[in-house]
Structure formats: structure tokens, C-alpha cells
Amino acid sequence: MFKIFFTDLDGTLLDHHSYDYSPARPALNQLQREHVPLILSTSKTAAEIIPFRLEIDNQDPFIVENGGGIFIPEGYFSSIPIETRKVGRYLSISQAPSYIQLQESLACLADQHNLQVESFAEMTPSRLSELSGLSEDQAQLSLQREFDLPFLILDGSLNTSQLEEEAHHLGLRLTRGGRFLHIGGNANKGQAVTQLLELYQINQEDSILSIGLGDSENDLDMLQAVHVPIVIPNPQSQSPLANRLPSARIAPAPGPEGWNEVVLSLLG
């Protein structure tokens, strides 16, 4: 049985407040020793993920901006029967609208419904640092987006359910992350996971057991796409993910502590 782990980052592998992952180091080390793929699947950008992958010595594909883009190290798969484009040392797969299109669509929605919004396209690194707790250098990487536009509603009476419906009418998708709302194309983490699982199956003979770990609403599609969904408790969430996935396994603690314990138990 060939195991593959898919994991969210903020609030899951990374602590929600400090972004620390050190409590998960034992499980990360065990994954490497057993040569088990660990696919990072996040709302973060490729610019953020590439240095983090180097830091934890991760060599596997990764999913960025809520499924908007898939990045595969060149030479990782012998066969990729999907259209890709070369980005540095990676092959990228995406059918997402352009970042400019997303900005125009969000501005249109805000104007139609008299909403005051603030998106990443308008934020400076210092403003994002203030809102998120990221350093200004980290915030600068987070602002280098291609496929997904995070934003805040500062003022207005339209609730998020209404906004989700309006976005759908434009062929777009609204999701809620740990701190921000996100508007993007119809691609999601679950679709990206499914594409990668198909590529793994094409390129190796063993049967696959896929495991997903996430803590918030934008992880739902990913957890529905794997064989073993695992919910990491999120004390910040107003809509606990476990309520949407009654069959999911619940990690024993939030963040990297719970992540570490449940991954080690599955490897063991």
C-alpha cells in the first residue's frame, strides 16, 4: 500500500498564531525516513511554499492558493498526460482565472452590493503583517499571488452566503480561510488532490491510500477527496469542520501537536 499525505498549513502543520511547526518535526522526519510523499496543500503562494519546502526538506509536489495551482518538481513523474507550463524548476498545472480578472470581479461585486472590501491586491506588506502576524518579508511573499484573491469585508450588509452565491453566478468560488475570505476560480483543493492522485496512480503500480489533514472550511474539498480525512481542531473556527465531516478522524490537539501525533499513529 502506497501512502500519500496531503496537508493544509496554517492551523494544521503550522501553529495558527506563531506559524511554528517544530512540534511536528518527529512525524516529518518519519515521513522522510519511510519515503512517504507529503503534499502541502494551502492558500499560500508558491513564493511562500518554495522556501518552506527547502526548510523542511520536502521534495514532493505542492498545491497553492486553494487549489488554483499545482507545482510538480521537474522529473518527479515519468509521465504527465496533462498540459503544464514550466516555472523555474517546476511544472505548473492550472485552469484558474488571471489575478487581474479576480480583482475586477471582486470590485464588481463590491460595487453592486455597496460593500467596502480590502483585498491583497491593495495591501502593503506592513498592512498584511499587521493583520496576519506574518513578518513583512513573509507578507511580501504572500502578496505574490496568481490564482486566488484573499480579502476582508470592512463594511456592508451582504453576508458571506449571499456573496458566495453572487460569486458563483460569475463562475467564481468563494471560500473562507483561517483569516480571510478568498475568491478564485472553480478549482479547489479537492480537485487538485484528485489530479495528483491520478498522476501518482499512472506512475506507480501499488494501490494508494490517501490521507488528508485540515482545519478550516477551505480544506473540506480536500478531505472529501481522500480515503482517510483527518480534522485538526481549530479553536478559532465559528463553523467547526468536524460538523461537516462526521466520518472524519479528529486529531487529539490543534495545530502541529495534533498533526504530529495523528501522522505518527498512521505511519506506525
How many beta strands in the DSSP annotation? 13
Distance between the termini: 14 Å
CATH topology title of the largest domain: Rossmann fold
Our estimate of the beta-strand percent is 15-25%
Largest sheet entry: 9 strands, mixed
Mean pLDDT level: 93
Query: Could you spell the SSE succession in H and E letters?
Result: EHEHEEEEHEHHEHEEHEHEEH
Low-confidence sequence ranges: none
Structural class, from secondary structure content? alpha/beta
What is the domain total for the residues?
2
Instruction: Let me know the CATH homologous superfamily of the largest domain.
Output: HAD superfamily/HAD-like
CATH class of the largest domain: Alpha Beta
Radius of gyration over C-alpha positions, nearest whole angstrom = 18 Å
Envelope shape: globular
Strand order of the main beta sheet, please?
A: 5-6-4-3-2-1-11-12-13
Percentage of residues in helical conformation: 25-40%
CATH architectural grouping of the largest domain: 3-Layer(aba) Sandwich
Task: Please report the number of helical segments.
Answer: 9
